Amino acid sequence: MTAIGTEFARVLTRWNPSGITRLRAALDAPDPYPRIRVVADHGVDVDGVLGRLADSCPDPHHTDAPAGIALVLLDASAPIGRAMLTRLRQVPDSTRVVIVLDGIDRHQDWDVVAARNRTLLAEYVPRLATVPIRPAASRVVDDRSEIATDLAAAAAGTAAEWESRNLLCLVDEVVGEARRSLAAHARTAAADANLAAARSERGDLIAERARAGADRSSLVRSRIQRVRLDALHDVGSEIRAVSTAATHAIDRAGTAAMRTFPVDFAREIDSAASRLDRSVGGRLDSVRNEIGGPDVASTAVVAPTDIDTVPAARSRGADEWLAGLVGLSAGAGFARLIGALTGPTPVLSWILTTVLALAVGGTTVAVRRRAADRATLRRWATEIVADVRPRWEQSILSALLDAEATITASLTAAARDRTKAVDRLMVGVDDRIRAGAAEVAGRNAAYERDLAALERGADAVRRAVEPRTAGVRPSP
């Protein structure tokens, strides 16, 4: 009995527990028969081929377990697929291989398929590149075929030789299974979910840090400039509306209305200023909601307008006195005309002339004075509007400059705070990544140690078994 090393047994128990059981059983009771393991492609009539080859090998024992002979059955309808190539790569190196291409009588282009199979084997399973591919027709395989000859040659050897060969095949099979299991666990460790999540989180934090540190002053400036253009347009609209309303009010105003016009006009100016304040404040709030920042419209954007509601007294000029004289003259002339037509007494004519002269003169003076008062109010309203407009514009522009500075400073401070917070989070994530990477590296080192122990133990078993195979012919 060949002993299994302690380290080799430990590694096999970890990565292939069923394999160590099979290996111990085989070492306790070696198999002296030439076993044939069938590796068949999809669509091949395995039972039919094996039935026709029943007498080709002395005492063949067909099995699905590792065996000293591998009978590879390929289908002539199509080249080897990926799954079949994977199975062929797993055939132990110590196994003798016989390859059969079955069904050539049913497929006229079987030779093309055979050539493609040779190319695929040379590329993906190089150790089988020199193994001949034997064509076989259905129900034609017999003891005189090349396949039967290959199988007979593969099955040659004494019982002792086959004990050793079967043990070597089993060792290769068990070690290969353990190696694949170990490699799968190593790949899983390299793709550790927690480590991958930490790296993904770090990437998200880096992107967030870049967004937080981005300079948004140009965006703030562009939005404030847009508000400025809209606000100046609103100022012009309000000024035109106030001027038009004042002109219409003055044209329709009587004496009493003209006395109250300055107060009404000042109230209209204040209403226009309030509308501008709400309009500009709403636009600034929209900018704040879009970009972020403090409430920049919490104070008045357009300052209240202080208007002197008592226009300067109008000086009475010579034109009013001249208008009065013209009125008196016209009234006297009208009275003489009436007296000439009616022929009144001199006293009545004098009285009529005086009354009409005074009435027409007074009316003329009143009309002229009202026209002069309207002109004075128009000039006063025009001066007020001309004074209010630049004050509104200056107030709005100052508020916009303050808002831009406030928003920019707030965004800069918020970005600085967020960058610091992200940096603190990244420190924790980096610690997790380093710990995870160290853990993965430790597991990989353990995998490497187990793999090395696996290879050393397998070599030791092979050396203990190989002397028995000195007379066994190498695999074709």
Distance between the termini: 29 Å
Rounded average pLDDT: 77
Number of strands: 5
Output the radius of gyration. 56 Å
Overall geometry comes to: rod-shaped
Structural class: mainly alpha
Strand content: 5-15%
What's the structural domain tally?
Answer: 2
The low-confidence runs, each spanning 5 or more residues with pLDDT under 50, are: 469-476
Helix proportion of residues, in percent? 55-70%
Order of helices and strands: HHEHEEHEHEHHHHHHH
* Sequence of strands across the biggest β-sheet: 2-1-3-4-5
Number of helices: 12
List keywords for this structure.
476 residues, mainly alpha, Rossmann fold, 2 domains, five-stranded parallel sheet, 12 helices, 70% helix, rod-shaped
Write structural notes for this entry.
The chain starts with 5 loop residues before the first helix and ends in an 11-residue tail after the last helix. It is rod-shaped and about 180 Å long. β1 (35-40), α3 (46-52) and β2 form a beta-alpha-beta unit. The protein is built from twelve helices and five strands. The chain has two domains: 6-196 and 446-469, Rossmann fold (3-Layer(aba) Sandwich), CATH 3.40.50; 214-433, no CATH class. Strands 2-1-3-4-5 form a five-stranded parallel sheet, with helices on both faces. The model is unreliable at 469-476 (pLDDT under 50). It has helices at residues 6-15, 17-28, 46-52, 82-89, 110-124, 146-154, 159-190, 193-213, 217-252, 255-291, 318-342, 346-465, and strands at residues 35-40, 61-63, 69-75, 96-102, 133-136. Keywords: Membrane, Transmembrane, Transmembrane helix. The chain crosses the membrane at residues 347-367.
